[in-house]
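Re: weekly structure request thread

Next one in the queue (181 aa):
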Amino acid sequence: MDNKLAALQERIIKLDRNLKAIAGSFAGDNLETDDIYGAIVEDILTHSDPNDSNARILTRAKWVCGHYNDHALVVAKHTQPELDVQVSETDDLDELDWQETTMKVTTTPENAVIDAETQAMIARVVATMEPRHQQILRLLVCGNSKAEIADQMGVPRPRVSQLIKDIRNTITRIDPNFGMA
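Done, posted below.
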C-alpha cells in the first residue's frame, strides 16, 4: 500500500502543473483553486492506480472539478435561494459515479440545469447497455485508447472497435439526436 501511495505521489508531482491548470480553469479565485487542487490530489491518491495513464489521471482531475462545481451549486441553492438553481431529486450526482466525467463547467444556473438533465439522460442510456458495453464506455471516458481497452479486457482490438460501434448504435437508437450540438 505504501508503494502505491508513493508511486501516486510521484505521478502527482510530475503532473502538478497540469493539475493546477485544470483546477484554475474551474475556479473563480486562487483560494478556490487551492481547494479544488486539494480535492483533485485527494481523489487521485484514494481512487487512482499507479499504472493509470496520464490521460486517465487528468480526466479524473476534470471529473473532480465538475463534481466540485456541481456540489458548490447545490450548496449555493440552499444558501442563496435567489440563484434559483433547480436540481431534480432524481439527479443524485454521487450515484452516477463514473458518468460524472462528462460534466462541463457550469457558470450559470441555466447551464447547471441543462447539465443535470444531460447527465440524467446519459445515465438512463448507459443503464440500458449490456455490462460489457458499460465497461468499455467507462474505460473510454477515463481516457483509455482502444489498444489499452483491448489489453485490459483481454480481447482483440478489432473486437473493441466493434463494441464501440455497438455502443454508438445503442445511443443513436435511444436518442437519434444525442451528441448533436
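The chain has two domains: 2-127, 128-181. Residues 2-127 form one domain.
Next request, please.
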